[in-house]
Amino acid sequence: MENEAGALSRVAGLFSARGYNIESLSVAPTEDPTLSRMTLVTNGPEEIVEQITKQLNKLIEVVKLIDLSDEGYVERELMLIKVRAVDKDREEMKRLVDIFRGNIIDVTNKIYTIELTGTRAKLDGFLQAIDRNLILEIARTGVSGLGRGERILEL
Amino acid sequence: MSTELTGAEITIRCLQEEGVSHIFGYPGGAVLFLYDELFKQDKIKHILVRHEQAALHAADGYARSSNKVGVALVTSGPGVTNAVTGIATAFMDSIPMVIISGQVPTAAIGQDAFQEVDTVGITRPCVKHNFLVKDVAELATTIKKAFYIASTGRPGPVLVDIPKDVTQQKAEFNYPASISLRSYTPVVTGDVQQIKRAIQMILEAKRPMVYFGGGVILDNAAAELTEFVRMLNFPCTGTLMGLGGYPSTDQQFVGMLGMHGTYEANMAMQYCDVLIAVGARFDDRVIGNPKHFCNEERKIIHIDIDPSSISKRVKVDVPIVGGVSAVLKELNMLLKAGRETTDINALLKWWEQIELWRARDCLKYDRTANIIKPQMVVEKLYEITSGDAFITSDVGQHQMWAAQFYKFDKPRRWINSGGLGTMGFGLPAAMGVQMANPGSKVACITGEASIQMCIQELSTCKQYHLPIKIINLNNRYMGMVRQWQEFFHGNRYAESYVDALPDFVKLAESYGHVGMRIDKPEDIEGTLKEAFKLDEQLVFIDFITDQTENVFPMVPGGKGLSEMILV
């Protein structure tokens, strides 16, 4: 998208006005400062996804749009999660973080703050693996994605 | 060395460069510098309305009837909020317009300043695009973009919000001769493979039907459509927005389709085997319940400039994205060059079936009644104007009767709010139409409820000597609401009776116009003739009509096209 004020609200407004779902949305400038890249995750039957694609393409500030899930792609999301970690939970939590290849990036005697990167499924998996009662706070970035191999989104 | 101009000067110069002859507006604090510049020049005529909604409708009527971009100028805050209904009206019907709105000075934005609203935010969902200009150096390019975006692709309104300080600041003026946007490249020509597939389907059709909409009017494709339909001898129907895209008096035209479409148009639409949709979008008022519509098997070819209109409500077999004019030209050329012909015998049988449906005479009404039937007024208006007037309308029963009984043979003669359905549209739209077509007959078919939504514009009409003829079909009810209440709400006429109506004759006279009132069918013709003889005056004719008349046929909401209520 053009890296302009208001471009994001046009996308968000389109989704709410037409009753589409946004599961996650992540946006930041690219190597070309006049352009932003937005990765948006949505769901719906094929006709709805087709409509979403067409409607987004109509927005003047959308420069180019691809459906990553049409072909192979890689996705990553970053999650920061703050958990209560005391007594025996401290060891157990550390072990799980290792299994999921996360990092503990902040520690107090009661709390771990964990960094975890991966697909949505992996992050959801981690949340299922730990005791829900220990979760104090979660911040997820939303998914970013790229096509696999030679598949490049370029102008 | 080039001299620098103020933002206000630049704005007006841009409009002049675009060849704008009329702008419709209303002054206010944030646009004072712009008005000052308007005052100092005489290339652009400013029309002062009495309410910003009317400025938008007038610019809209101007655009629809002239094929030029309509331009409106409003101030910040309430100027913009009043304009929103008019912007949304134009957006729903894809009308090319540029709206210049004043904004509070840049330093005051976000401070809840006097007459401040988030104009770009409020209008975002009902414009094709909008801009807030924060730097005077970008003003000229932004206005160029606005005109380009408004008038290309699927047209629509574009708003340019200009803070007051930007109209004071200076910059060098360079108006770009042309512009291109990397993120906006509308297609014109259709895909050749799809066009070839369409031709094959057309040639194999046993029960073909052409269904055209407002896209034909917007893309000036009436001649191409007429050639296409006549060459193939196919039946055709038009949507409310498409009327005039094919001559309504022609035998191959089976009338308007949809909720109040003719029996023959709706039946042919439902039971055709190949449907060619041209610049139309299968909306709810046109095909009724899409599930019911899809119960019948048919192949659909859909030509439209907007890919998002294709397969939105109804899945189509051959999508052709492109300007309808360019695509029809290509189709016509290939059809003429080809050796294959249509299935003439099947077509004859299909026409026999259609004629049987047509014989049902679904638009009949009691012509012997001793009270005025609204349909008769429209029929007489058609006769007296030789079918050649520009007709605007408001929204409701009168709109449907106008569409059913005024036989539009030419495009851009029928001006109504089809998508948004805006009551109050008719009179201000007629002002714009008359401005764009001085010397032409312009009539506004309205009702006593709709006309009161922008009645203040009688004052504007006086100021600019606009000899519009107002045909007020006065049944003392919000007729279409009353009709639905009669059919679907057990005759409980909740708040649909209009009590305490003004004396429209005196009202018209108080604005310096001519007022007439009649209640006898035998007076319709004479009164209309008399009114049109007064070719320099606005005449308000108050027709006291049958209160209980309903619009037929009717496809009730949620029902299928073949499930019409008939007279």
UniProtKB/TrEMBL annotation, chain A:
<keyword id="KW-0100">Branched-chain amino acid biosynthesis</keyword>
<comment type="subunit">
    <text>Dimer of large and small chains.</text>
</comment>
<keyword id="KW-0808">Transferase</keyword>
<dbReference type="Pfam" id="PF22629">
    <property type="entry name" value="ACT_AHAS_ss"/>
</dbReference>
<comment type="function">
    <text>Catalyzes the conversion of 2 pyruvate molecules into acetolactate in the first common step of the biosynthetic pathway of the branched-amino acids such as leucine, isoleucine, and valine.</text>
</comment>
<keyword id="KW-0028">Amino-acid biosynthesis</keyword>
<dbReference type="InterPro" id="IPR045865">
    <property type="entry name" value="ACT-like_dom_sf"/>
</dbReference>
<dbReference type="InterPro" id="IPR002912">
    <property type="entry name" value="ACT_dom"/>
</dbReference>
<dbReference type="Pfam" id="PF10369">
    <property type="entry name" value="ALS_ss_C"/>
</dbReference>
<dbReference type="InterPro" id="IPR054480">
    <property type="entry name" value="AHAS_small-like_ACT"/>
</dbReference>
<comment type="pathway">
    <text>Amino-acid biosynthesis; L-valine biosynthesis; L-valine from pyruvate: step 1/4.</text>
</comment>
<dbReference type="InterPro" id="IPR004789">
    <property type="entry name" value="Acetalactate_synth_ssu"/>
</dbReference>
<dbReference type="InterPro" id="IPR039557">
    <property type="entry name" value="AHAS_ACT"/>
</dbReference>
<protein>
    <recommendedName>
        <fullName>Acetolactate synthase small subunit</fullName>
        <ecNumber>2.2.1.6</ecNumber>
    </recommendedName>
</protein>
<comment type="pathway">
    <text>Amino-acid biosynthesis; L-isoleucine biosynthesis; L-isoleucine from 2-oxobutanoate: step 1/4.</text>
</comment>
<comment type="similarity">
    <text>Belongs to the acetolactate synthase small subunit family.</text>
</comment>
<dbReference type="InterPro" id="IPR027271">
    <property type="entry name" value="Acetolactate_synth/TF_NikR_C"/>
</dbReference>
<feature type="domain" description="ACT">
    <location>
        <begin position="1"/>
        <end position="71"/>
    </location>
</feature>
<dbReference type="InterPro" id="IPR019455">
    <property type="entry name" value="Acetolactate_synth_ssu_C"/>
</dbReference>
TrEMBL record, chain B:
<dbReference type="InterPro" id="IPR029061">
    <property type="entry name" value="THDP-binding"/>
</dbReference>
<feature type="domain" description="Thiamine pyrophosphate enzyme N-terminal TPP-binding">
    <location>
        <begin position="6"/>
        <end position="121"/>
    </location>
</feature>
<dbReference type="Pfam" id="PF00205">
    <property type="entry name" value="TPP_enzyme_M"/>
</dbReference>
<dbReference type="InterPro" id="IPR029035">
    <property type="entry name" value="DHS-like_NAD/FAD-binding_dom"/>
</dbReference>
<keyword id="KW-0100">Branched-chain amino acid biosynthesis</keyword>
<dbReference type="GO" id="GO:0050660">
    <property type="term" value="F:flavin adenine dinucleotide binding"/>
</dbReference>
<feature type="domain" description="Thiamine pyrophosphate enzyme TPP-binding">
    <location>
        <begin position="394"/>
        <end position="542"/>
    </location>
</feature>
<keyword id="KW-0285">Flavoprotein</keyword>
<comment type="similarity">
    <text>Belongs to the TPP enzyme family.</text>
</comment>
<dbReference type="InterPro" id="IPR012000">
    <property type="entry name" value="Thiamin_PyroP_enz_cen_dom"/>
</dbReference>
<keyword id="KW-0479">Metal-binding</keyword>
<keyword id="KW-0808">Transferase</keyword>
<keyword id="KW-0786">Thiamine pyrophosphate</keyword>
<dbReference type="GO" id="GO:0009099">
    <property type="term" value="P:L-valine biosynthetic process"/>
</dbReference>
<dbReference type="Pfam" id="PF02775">
    <property type="entry name" value="TPP_enzyme_C"/>
</dbReference>
<dbReference type="Pfam" id="PF02776">
    <property type="entry name" value="TPP_enzyme_N"/>
</dbReference>
<dbReference type="InterPro" id="IPR045229">
    <property type="entry name" value="TPP_enz"/>
</dbReference>
<protein>
    <recommendedName>
        <fullName>Acetolactate synthase</fullName>
        <ecNumber>2.2.1.6</ecNumber>
    </recommendedName>
</protein>
<comment type="pathway">
    <text>Amino-acid biosynthesis; L-isoleucine biosynthesis; L-isoleucine from 2-oxobutanoate: step 1/4.</text>
</comment>
<comment type="pathway">
    <text>Amino-acid biosynthesis; L-valine biosynthesis; L-valine from pyruvate: step 1/4.</text>
</comment>
<dbReference type="GO" id="GO:0009097">
    <property type="term" value="P:isoleucine biosynthetic process"/>
</dbReference>
<dbReference type="InterPro" id="IPR011766">
    <property type="entry name" value="TPP_enzyme_TPP-bd"/>
</dbReference>
